[in-house]
Write a structure and sequence with these properties.
GO molecular function: ATP binding
Strand order of the largest sheet: 6-7-8-3-9-10
Helix content: 10-25%
Shape: elongated
InterPro entries: AAA+_ATPase, ABC_SmlMolc_Importer, ABC_transporter-like_ATP-bd, ABC_transporter-like_CS, Mo/tungstate-bd_C_term_dom, P-loop_NTPase, Transp-assoc_OB_typ2
Keywords: ATP-binding, Nucleotide-binding, Transport
Number of strands: 20
Protein name: ABC transporter ATP-binding protein
Largest sheet: 6 strands, mixed
CATH class of the largest domain: Alpha Beta
Number of helices: 8
Distance between the termini: 39 Å
Number of domains: 2
Length: about 350
């Protein structure tokens, strides 16, 4: 017996005139998940978030939350709340009154309202800040107030629309930690929109990669990064070396041989002979000095940039038209023009359709 997903998006389509913003998107999410919708501008991620929140209506398809069809319900009628990038706090209200605003609109009795406001303040670490004005708070504190306001109404799903985009790098990382801890403490489902790959991997239990109004790939951060399903996902989820080739043979169910500019590469698993593929290798998986079991030839360093924990190195093959991006230890001697013998382990080669 299969259980119905907590968030159930079924063949949802959104069209504006001749523009298809979302094209038959289907997604099922379990209760308590931290979902990140990830993609470039125009990929459809914000449109999908707005459809879940009821701010726009789908052209076709269905949306269910906690076993209830909410497709035609207004935002106020849905079991969701939304945290926007600008927080949308009321500057003339105290912190406590901002947090309690949604409860007041729902006509929650005053005594219960005070109790839940106090709990909300404690939840976000602002227990003594209830009487302060919004103008007295830092950016991070304002975000905590917005989070408390969203959570005190006890939504089934909290929607977050690029909530960290306005913060500086250090505060953004701090708030990532706090968002994740808050989600785990409350056990609520979060759906978070961002175009930042590092933010997605830091927060998500499920990443949904979007492209041109469709779901390109979805899975755990580890799987999406290490074993991307498409070339777009591989490129969007961070740097990689990409080697194009042609499948020449398959050895039963154990391995596949691909003819490339840097030689014949043997990959685990089987692919149809004749297929054009792109082989993806992440920078940290390229090795020097012949340490890996797959030989990629020699390459000469074009650029090397010190980035603290490692050198980011761009190198070009000495025998073929092929570039490599790799990381070398910070204590390694690295010079422009230096020749490197490159290799990797077969298990780190990922083939996607060209």
């Amino acid at each position: 017996m299969t259980t119905q997903p907590h968030l159930d998006i079924d063949a949802v389509r959104k069209v504006y005139g001749s523009v298809v913003a979302l094209d038959e998107v289907t997604l099922g999410v379990e209760k308590g998940a931290y979902v990140v919708l990830l993609g470039p501008s125009g990929s459809g991620k914000t449109t999908l978030l707005s459809l879940i929140g009821g701010f726009i209506v789908p052209s076709s398809g269905r949306i269910g939350i906690a076993g209830r069809d909410v497709t035609d319900l207004s935002p106020a009628q849905r079991p969701t709340t939304t945290l926007f990038q600008d927080y949308a706090l009321f500057p003339h209200m105290s912190v406590a009154n901002n947090i309690g605003f949604g409860l007041k609109m729902r006509r929650v009795p005053a005594a219960e309202r005070r109790k839940r406001i106090a709990a909300g303040l404690e939840l976000v670490g602002l227990g003594d800040y209830g009487g302060r004005g919004i103008h007295e708070l830092s950016g991070g504190q304002r975000q905590r107030v917005a989070l408390a306001r969203a959570l005190v109404v006890e939504p089934e799903i909290l929607l977050l629309d690029e909530p960290l985009g306005a913060l500086d790098l250090n505060l953004r990382r701090q708030m990532q930690d706090e968002l994740l801890a808050l989600q785990r403490r409350t056990g609520r489902s979060f759906v978070h929109v961002t175009h930042d790959q590092e933010e997605a991997m830091a927060l998500a239990s499920l990443i949904v990669v979007m492209n041109n109004g469709r779901i390109e790939d979805m899975g755990t951060p580890k799987r999406i990064y290490e074993r991307p399903a498409t070339r777009f996902t591989a490129t969007f989820m961070g740097e990689s070396t990409q080697i194009t080739g042609q499948v020449t043979s398959a050895d039963g169910s154990s391995s596949t041989q691909v003819e490339t500019a840097v030689g014949k590469l043997r990959l685990p698993g089987t692919l149809p002979a004749g297929n054009g593929v792109t082989i993806i290798i992440r920078p940290e998986n390229l090795q020097t000095g012949g340490a890996g079991d797959v030989n990629l030839g020699t390459a000469r360093i074009r650029e090397a940039t010190f980035q603290g924990a490692h050198y980011r190195v761009l190198a070009s093959s000495e025998t073929a038209d092929q570039d490599f991006v790799l990381r070398l230890p910070p204590d390694r001697q690295v010079e422009q023009g230096m020749s490197l013998a490159l290799s990797c382990r077969a298990e780190h080669l990922v083939a996607v359709d060209r």
